[in-house]
Amino acid sequence: MADKNVVKGVKAKRRRLRVRGKVSGTPARPRLTVAKTLKNIYVQVIDDINRVTLAAAATNSKNVSSEDGANKTKQAFAVGQAIAKVALEKGIVEVVFDKNVSRYHGRVKAVADGARKGGLKL
Question: What angle do CA 76, 58, 88 make, to 5 degrees?
Answer without folding.
Answer: 85
